[in-house]
Design goal:
The structure is a single chain. This protein has six helices and twelve strands. With about 325 residues, it is of the alpha+beta class. A hairpin with an 8-residue loop joins strand 6 and strand 7 (about 160). Helix 1 (about 15-50) packs antiparallel against helix 2 (about 55-85), helix 4 packs across helix 6 and helix 5 crosses helix 6 (about 300-315). The chain starts with 13 loop residues before the first helix and ends with a helix. About 30% of the residues are buried. Bound molecules: dinuclear copper ion (CUA). The site of dinuclear copper ion (CUA) has 9 residues, from loops.
């Protein structure tokens, strides 16, 4: 898994590779100017020690104008032209035939992800995790349901703001399978720091299997514990906000949970989606992520939490 600023310079797709190339060239240009300026400074200091003849004073003025003005202007102008020409290649976001179409909606504080259903019918809803096939580009439609968020997966592409009432496009392609982390890159309120997205890049056939599984409705609970967990889900009115397609339809306030058990994290990267994580999250949302729209269900006893976790975990 990649994260942090270092991943900008370890690209995993063509757009990020271009951004890394431009970054390295700009860093090299800046280093050139720095070394030249420091060299001149050292030379001038060295010469000052000796009493200056009138001719030498003239020559040092030439050095200052040449080294302090002409060289930096020439290098910066060259970098500016390079960056404008080369850098603009990477921001073209026009979709092409064969691109996978995915819409991503930023919300306080999670990511709604929707895929077109290959078999027709309504979109496939997921959350906080985008799956992509390696080597095939996806055209993302980026939007926001509330305030301005920003979509940024440093290993794959540059940053694009998600603005309410407007769909921005981003063409995203990953060369190799892997998991790439993306933080929300625009301050969007209390839990901006806990708004993490994961892009999971699968081999193409694994991706097709994943998409078919996501399109399917939820599996009915198996076993007594999961069956009781489903009853707790119903009694606590979780379905008022969360849809579990085929079992509880209609809820749209929170993430779709039809296949929540197949995701790696809950709460946009806050806790692991394993049985302990489900129970911890449901009982202590407001402790783990204060201000999130979901209340803490700390009135539930340990047994209810455990069976609820068993039900949710089975939603693969
Ligand atoms: Cu969403 Cu910051």
């Amino acid at each position: 898994m990649s994260s942090g600023a270092a991943s900008v310079l370890t690209p995993a797709g063509p757009a990020a590779a271009l951004a890394a190339e431009v970054s390295w060239v700009l860093i090299a240009g800046a280093a050139l100017i720095f070394v030249a300026t420091m060299g001149l400074l050292a030379a001038v200091t060295w010469r000052r020690r000796a009493p200056a003849a009138p001719l030498a004073r003239d020559r040092s003025r030439l050095w200052l104008v040449g080294g302090g003005l002409v060289v930096p202007v020439a290098v910066l102008a060259a970098l500016f032209v390079y960056q404008s020409v080369r850098g603009s290649v990477g921001v073209a976001a026009d979709g092409r035939r064969g691109d996978l179409v995915v819409s991503v909606i930023g919300r306080m504080w999670w990511w709604e992800v929707r895929y077109r259903n290959p078999a027709g019918g309504p979109d496939i809803a997921a959350a906080n995790e985008i799956h992509l096939p390696a080597g095939r580009a996806a055209l993302l439609g980026l939007n926001s349901g509330d305030v301005i968020h920003s979509f940024w997966v440093p290993s794959l592409a540059g940053k694009v703001d998600m603005v309410p009432g407007r769909v921005q496009q981003l063409r995203l392609e990953a060369s190799a399978p892997g998991i790439y982390r993306g933080p929300c890159a625009e301050f969007c309120g209390d839990q901006h720091a806990r708004m993490t997205l994961h892009v999971v890049v699968d081999p193409p056939d694994a991706f097709e299997r994943w998409l078919r599984a996501q399109a399917a409705p939820a599996v009915a609970p198996r076993g007594a514990a999961a069956e009781r967990g489903r009853a707790v889900f119903e009694a606590q009115r979780c379905a008022g906000c969360h849809a579990v397609r085929g079992l509880f339809d209609g809820g749209t306030g929170g993430p779709d949970l039809t296949h929540v058990g197949s995701r790696a994290f809950l709460g946009a990267g806050t806790v692991r989606a394993d049985p302990a994580g489900f129970a911890r999250w449901v009982a202590g949302v407001q402790h783990l992520k204060p201000g999130a729209r979901m209340p803490s269900y700390d009135r539930l006893d340990a047994e209810s939490l455990q069976v609820l976790a068993a039900f949710l975990e089975q939603l693969q």
